[in-house]
Design brief:
The chain is about 70% helix and about 0% strand. The radius of gyration is 35 Å and the shape is elongated. Helix 2 runs parallel beside helix 5, helix 5 runs antiparallel to helix 6 and helix 8 packs antiparallel against helix 10. The relative contact order is 0.04. It has about 475 residues and is an all-alpha fold.
């Protein structure tokens, strides 16, 4: 429009002249059966169909010039004039939704025309982020509708990109914080991911778009959280973040948004793994969920390292228990998944063991005893030899430590803790003897459940399903 301002006095004449020219070109393009070169006895070097499309795009260009003159004549502002172009573009894209054969033949020119009109409208809107947001929203609806009608992955993906831009512009228009936008992206990602699960399993109309819409939104949400976090340190031009009040980083809403979005990504992986019965996806999702849990724990600013190591240890042991058979790690003595038991037990036991050496650390020594008994009980119940070994080694190490080193100060005498642990073990043993039939049935039932639908693999020791005879 700015280029046409010098013709303001002749705006109506320009509008009429160019619209008539556009109509003439459009009619010629639509009604043409051959090549224009035939009018001059020239050999056509361009296929007639391509030539007709080119003439049609020329007609559209003339129509855009006519629309510019019209906007100038009625003295529309640039932002308002931008809407006339955006509406024209939306009409062109929505026209491709028709299933008529002739319309399908003009799919390419209509798409190019619609994109051109949207670009002109966005340029006319300038820095009016509110109008730009609405324009991109209309473009998103148009492209998604066209993509679904024509089974076009690229159009659906283009609609998603337009929707993302529309949301970002809306947030900039309202001056809302970036972390809240990342949460909206994360919620949208979760909805799309779970809603598209059947389409991922059995590809339908737009398979590539389904895959893109299942992965891209959650990555975008995490990227938005990272952007918001980096803005706190002044590493991005974003201004006005509410996290700049001097609070610790882990106490800011930006950090919380990152925790939530990472947890959403982990839940997606776990769901996909369970839905498609893929162990690797479940393990990867569990690792991502563990990361989000550690980040969530960090918000409380605990100083005791056990708060962070205990979830890691439990996850490693749980992962080992979920694997029935694996490759040898130390020959037939230890399989790969049994190595996870040792690693998890070490991460679980060593931090409190180290703290038990400090003055007043007797309570941590008691915790080590309880952890050793728990490892021993789980190992015996689920027939996991290295978990039982880890429990026994832990209890023996605690006893040896109290015998050799008796310098730590605490409210609980060491002999009392060892005595309590011994009495508990003796009590469990007596109970097992008194209720041996019940214990054998329970143990066999749990083992059958644990090994259900699994073939016996290396290192698996099938349980004795028959209860032992009464003494």
């Amino acid at each position: 429009m700015a280029a046409l301002e010098e013709y303001e006095s002749e705006a109506w004449a320009g509008a009429v002249a160019f619209v008539l020219s556009a109509l003439a070109w459009a009619i010629g393009s639509w009604r043409s059966k051959g090549s224009l070169g035939e009018l001059f006895d020239l050999k056509a070097s361009v296929p007639p169909r391509t030539e007709r499309h080119g003439v049609a795009l020329g007609a559209f260009g003339l129509a855009m010039i006519s629309l510019g003159f019209f906007n100038l004549a009625i003295e529309l502002s640039l932002a308002a004039a931008g809407w006339t172009y955006a509406a024209t573009g939306a009409g062109a894209i929505f026209a491709t939704c028709r299933t008529h054969v002739r319309v399908r033949d003009w799919l390419g020119p209509l798409t190019v025309a619609g994109l051109t009109a949207f670009v002109i409208g966005a340029d006319a809107a300038g820095h009016h982020t509110g109008e730009l947001s609405a324009m991109f929203g209309v473009a998103a609806a148009a492209f998604v509708a066209s993509g679904l009608a024509n089974r076009s992955d690229n159009r659906v993906i283009g609609g998603f990109v337009s929707a993302v831009a529309s949301a970002a512009l809306a947030w900039a228009w309202q001056d809302w914080p970036a972390w809240s936008l990342s949460l909206v992206y994360g919620a949208t990602a979760a909805i799309l991911f779970f809603a598209l699960a059947p389409s991922r399993k059995e590809p339908g109309v737009v398979p590539r778009a389904v895959t893109f819409l299942s992965v891209a939104p959650v990555l975008l949400a995490i990227a938005g959280s990272v952007f918001a976090l980096s803005a706190l340190n002044g590493t991005t031009p974003f201004d006005g973040s509410p996290g700049s009040s001097g609070d610790p980083l882990v106490r800011t809403p930006e950090w919380l948004s990152a925790v939530i979005n990472i947890a959403i990504a982990g839940a997606m992986l776990v769901f996909e793994g369970m839905y498609r019965k893929g162990r690797l996806a479940v393990v990867a999702g569990g690792a991502v969920l563990l990361l989000s849990l550690e980040m969530a724990i960090a918000t409380f600013e605990f100083e005791n390292i056990q708060v962070y190591t205990a979830p890691v240890a439990i996850c490693l042991i749980g992962l080992g228990l979920s694997i029935r058979r694996s490759e040898p790690l130390l020959g037939h003595h230890m399989l790969l998944h049994e190595g996870l038991f040792i690693l998890g037990a070490a991460i679980l036991v060593l931090p409190p063991a180290e703290q038990s050496f400090e003055p007043g650390g007797a309570n941590w020594g008691l915790l080590v005893i309880l952890e050793g008994m728990a490892l021993l009980a789980v190992g015996l119940t689920l027939f996991q030899r290295w978990l039982a070994v880890a429990g026994v080694v832990t209890l023996v190490a605690v006893a040896a430590r109290y015998v050799v080193d008796n310098t730590a100060n605490g409210n609980i005498p060491y002999w009392a803790m060892l005595g309590v642990a011994g009495l508990l073990l003796l009590g469990v043993g007596v109970l097992m003897l008194l209720e041996r039939e019940w214990w054998d049935r329970t143990k066999a039932r749990m083992a059958r459940w644990w090994l259900e639908q699994e073939d016996s693999g290396p290192g698996d020791e099938p349980p004795d399903a028959e209860p032992a005879p009464q003494p």
